[in-house]
Every structure is written in C-alpha cells, then in structure tokens.
Amino acid sequence: MSLIVQKFGGSSVADAEGIKRVAQRVVDTQAAGHHVVVVVSAMGDSTDELLDLAAQVSPASSDAREMDMLLSAGERISMALLAMAIHGIGASAQSFTGSQAGMITDAIHGKARIIDVSPHRIRTAIEKGDIAIVAGFQGMSRDSNDITTLGRGGSDTTAVALAAALDADVCEIYTDVDGVYTADPRVVPSAQKIDTISSEEMLEMAASGAKILHLRCVEYARRFGVPIHVRSSFSHNEGTWVLPSPDDQIKIQEGEPLEQPIISGVAHDRSEAKVTVVGVPDIPGKAAEIFGIVAGTNTNIDMIVQNVSTHGSGRTDISFTLPIVDGAEALAALGEAQDRVGFESVEYNETIGKLSLIGAGMRSNPGVSYRFFRALSDAGVNIDMISTSEIRISVVTGADLLDTAVRAVHAAFELDGDITATVYAGTGR
Ligand code: ASP
Ligand code: MG
After folding, report:
1. What is the mean pLDDT of residues 188-198?
2. Residue 64 CA to chain centroid, in angstroms?
3. How far is the CA of 185 from the centre of ligand 1 (A)?
4. What is the pTM of this model?
5. Which CATH topology does 2-175 take?
6. 20 to 30 A from 2, CA-CA: which of 42, 60, 296, 366?
7. 260-429: same fold as 2-175?
C-alpha cells in the first residue's frame, strides 16, 4: 500500500466549506487504496490576523516564546476541524500537534529548524486505518520543552519532513493555483504552468521569492529524495512535479523532447529591505566584522554588493538585502557596533523589490543576460543591485516598478501563454 502525504495550505481550508471539500478529497484518496497523512496550515489569513492581534496587545511583539504559542494555535484549529469533517463523512481520522507527531526542532523561536522527526504516533494511526492529520509549521524543542514554529510558510516543510521520515511515495502540496507557474499568476495572468521542474531550479525560484513552496521544504525534499507534486485543491488537474534528481526528470519526460527549456521562470520578492553601510574602512576584516554582527541576530542575508572605494578616501560602501522582518534587529546591532567597526552611517530602504530570472539552460546560453537587461531598460526600470548564480540573474529595483519589470522580462523570454492562469482562491496576503 502506498503512502501519500497531502498538505493543504490556508486558502484550501479557509472556511467550513473548504474544510469539507478537503475532507472529501482526503477520504477519496484513502478509498483509492492509500495510507494518507495530512498536514494543514492555519485557516485563510488567520496567521496574519493573530500577528495583528499580538501587535495590538503589545507593540514590541518581541516575546518569541509566546508568539510561537499563539501562532501554533492557528494550525491546531484547522487540524481538529478537518478531523471532525472527516468523521462527518464516515471515515476515521485523528489529529496531532507538531510535537505529538514527533517534530523535534532546535529552540530558536519563529524560525526553528527540524533536528529529528519521530512520527511513531502517526505510523500507529495509519496502520490501524486512520487518516492522520498533523498541524503544520510547528514542533517542539527538546532542550526547552517549548513549542516552536518553523517560520512563515513552514507547513510545506512539515509535510516534506514527514514524507521523508515515513518514506512516503509522494508529498502532494495543495494550493490555490494549479502548480508552479513561470511567474506569479497574480502579477502575470498569462503565466504558464510548469509540468516538471528540477529541485535545483525550484530552489532558486523559492529562494528568489516564489511563494508557492517554502524554500526549506525544497532543500529538504532534495536532500531526502522526496518527489513533490504541487497542485490545486480546487481542481483535479495534474500539477507541477518537483523532481529531486535529474534522473527522475528523464524518467518522467520519456517520449517527450528531452531538451530543457532555457528559462523556467521569473520570480519576484517584496519582502526584503536594503541596508547600506556607508564609509566602511577599506581594510581587511571589516566585511567579516559587519556580517558577523548581522549573523549574530540570526538574519539571513541575500544579495551583497561592495563598491570600489572612492579614490584616496580609504573607505567603501557595503550594501546587502535582508528580510524586512529582521531589519530592525539588524539595524540595532549595527548601530551598537558603529564606533568599534568605524563606519560612518547606515541607510535603510524598505521600498525595494527583487526580480529573478531562473533557468538551468542559461548556463550554456550566451545572450541571456543581454536579453534580460535589454527588457528592463525598454521598460524604463532602473537597477539598484545585481547578483547572479549559474542558473539565476537577480536585480533589485524600486518597489513601484517591480510588477512592470516582471511582466517585461516574462514577455522578453517568450514565457507568456495563450490562456489566463486560474487563481482559485487566496488573497495573496
Ligand atoms: N500558517 C503559517 C503561515 O501562514 C504556516 C503556513 O501556512 O505554512 O505562515
Ligand atoms: Mg504556504
């Protein structure tokens, strides 16, 4: 008997109707002869609503432990309601919190990392014929015995981690669009669904802000060889397969042209801010000091640019991007260290956007960057920062021009399709 892990996102379980629809789908999967483990997110935008509430009772919502207690409640609501809905149609199901499901994490609240998954209770439940439902996005620290959360969007990672630990045949991620698109269909309605994508490209897409899959879930799936099928809970259409290794790619595409498209898609991100450390002494060790300070706040840094020092000044500027949510803490830490490091000032800008073009085929295709920058220039978009990898080019632009830039680049690489992508639900919040 095969084992399927199905994860349903917030927009799929946004209301009673949605929960009943998901219940039916899960029961149908079991009736087709599979063991089913379900991972759920919090209903609709309820995680954001809980965050808003926290900000209202205490402006400095820095109470990380209590924040995790609060936010983990969102997923507990959906798991219990889904179990009830399944009982309502005559099947048996049990819900489990992250800690009951054996999701053991480190003790870093708000962005805990999984260190062990021991899903004994889940195994027992499915072996006796129950559908096991697990609250996504949460775990427990063995050191502190406290409830932790994995970071926004973390339910995808819960699902893949469970799929790996249970040796599932596939991890299905159900969402409000039919799969992974060549761009966010909310911004580019003519974006096309991608049938299969390598985990390498999917990693770059997720790291570049494509919100369809949590970055860590893709890393996890790649490491443990879990195939992911991203699809809609509102249709029965085949979605996008994210394949852990290139061999799988060839297997699936048998009978089809094997040549990879040059470009897989355009991703964008509005969740980052730009920090510029101005007037850094241009001597060895200063960059290490600065990034050491930022790392001390547990912030992930993305793009980094250091300017050539102005002739004779002996000083240079270093700019980098980081998540807006980490901005205040990083600025405070830098401010404290200003005299010691000896830089002149720090500038901070939240009104930026990042656009990335991703494709494994660009490795061997000269002219991609020319076409990319030509498209941006034709659209009148000014570029603030540039970074590249083997299979990605990213730029930072002003936030106001980001959508225009995404559409221009998508069109320039002939990614536009003839049919309008369906967005079934969700506010995109
Ligand atoms: N409910 C959490 C969030 O909104 C986790 C998730 O949806 O994956 O970020
Ligand atoms: Mg999500």
Report:
1. 94
2. 21
3. 20
4. 0.87
5. Carbamate kinase (3.40.1160)
6. 42
7. no
